[in-house]
Structures
1.
Amino acid sequence: MSPRKLQYYGSKVLRNSSRAVDIPSELEFLHSLLSDMLEILKYEKGLGLAAPQAGENVRLFVLNSDELNLSGHSIFINPEVTTSGSLDKDEEGCLSIPGIFEYVRRPLNVSVSACDLAGERFTLNLDDYSARAVQHENDHLDGILFVDRLSPLRKRLVKKQLSEIKREYGPHSRIL
Ligand SMILES: [Zn+2]
């Protein structure tokens, strides 16, 4: 099987809700998916990548632990995220939405519980950009993109760029 490819805005898989993964029985699939996801993340020099961005509607994401403060964790399988704290505004981008960077308002703190590849559940309490990255990736598992969280005005302002991305990278483009 050829390696999975990064999915761009306009790809239907980015809009689906993802299903939970069964770790012992799906280990082979998980290994192949994670290897492709880590490859894409490294190649694209991203902060994080969720499985739908690699074309698979399963609940898992990877984060760049060199750039974020995650106590060494980088693989989050079947994550459960609880947010708290005041709202904070910072700039976000997304590998699936190239060229668009916008400020997004999100809670400052998260508690994330997830499984690692061994099936062990761990919990991390995060703040600042690590908390933001977890929320951004977790949104992908519910078919939500960061541009959905912009104000109506900002949404109108990025609309044209979004349709250009869809045309350039989308399923009916000359590239794919
Ligand atoms: Zn993203």
2.
Amino acid sequence: MRVLIVGGGVAGLTLAAKLLQQGRRPVIVEKAHAFEDKGYAIGLYPLGSCVLHGLGKYDELIERGQVADSYRIVDGRGGLMQDVDLSIFAGEIGPMVLISRTELIDLLQDAAGDADVRMGTTVSELHQPNDSGLVDVVLSDGTPEAFDVVIGCDGIHSPTRSMVFDAPADVFDSNWVLWVWWSEMPAWPRNEMLESWGKGRFFGLYPVADRVMVCAGMNENHITVEPTDLQPAKSYLHELFAEFSASDERIGSAIDSSTRFFSWRMADARAHEWVNGRVGLCGDAAVGFLPTAGAGANSAMRSAAALADELSRVNGQTASLALEMFEKRCRKIVEKNQKDSRRLAKYIFVENAMMAWSRNELVKHYPVAKMVGDIVDAMHTPF
Ligand SMILES: Cc1cc2nc3c(=O)[nH]c(=O)nc-3n(C[C@H](O)[C@H](O)[C@H](O)COP(=O)(O)OP(=O)(O)OC[C@H]3O[C@@H](n4cnc5c(N)ncnc54)[C@H](O)[C@@H]3O)c2cc1C
């Protein structure tokens, strides 16, 4: 069975690695000429990291990543709202691990090393089915090829999705932007994540093994400088987060330490359908995530593993059956995860003082056991 995977990101590489284990050698086309740093870390819950057990890469994740034991949420003045001990579920289902996206991609690339990877390549045309029931594809280098099945793993703005479905994706746009950067911060406790939730602004610190990912969130309409203008951008952040820095001077130092800001728009996407004949969508291409619940990469890896499992039960002729089963198996749970991340975004990305105050009161009284329980429950839900 010839499988084309469009996009060599988290979902695409996971899928390729799982197919290789079945003795199938997929083709991956990846738009980028080389994998580059995108400036952010990924928090892997057991929901996603468990897939790495089956790829022989879990121990490496633990070695290269950073186990997070503590998740603290404070208000804009540094007042503690939540202090969640993440270590309490680690023994039962496994820990939460933070790793830079670059390192995760590297690890998955290694697992998918024997795939036929074509960097700097996209799909220019896609037609299905041809007379033999195959999908005809023309690649951006002009090569025509035919595949039994094509999987769009090409991310939140998926060109594959636009090629095979007329209906545009359903988009939730918060109008907020996240500026993300790396900071050395050697004194930062490596097992602690900290989020400061203010009115119209958000600050987050997430340590990986050798550095800390720093995030500043704000409404795009209030931004007065370009993130690429380093010094004006730092001055802008100092002004915006003056109250935060007054309560925790490490926030000011984190801003000063930036050498480059990466800007991410806080909008997601949801495809109306996942499957059209022999073309399917997986990962953010099917259901794209805001980073708020830290669920996108987790869902992408889990879905890719489920898709590979369904594909293991078919041949080229019956491939569309596997796609149908995959959608039935994963769609509800992935859309629920996305709904949670949208809800959380509505809590975090708050502009109004009264709403921010009410939100803070709610967060203070939200049972920690429930927060941790949700993570454990996710692991006891078939996916
Ligand atoms: C700041 C930030 C923080 C995040 N934090 C977390 C977190 O803590 N936990 C978590 O679970 N998730 C997190 N996420 C979300 C997570 O990164 C995504 O959900 C995940 O990467 C989705 O995987 P994917 O493979 O579907 O898409 P991607 O990883 O985006 O990969 C898509 C790939 O397709 C390629 N591509 C695009 N177009 C084409 C084309 N036409 N042809 C060929 N290739 C193409 C791209 O170059 C890319 O390599 C975060 C996201 C951001 C932005």
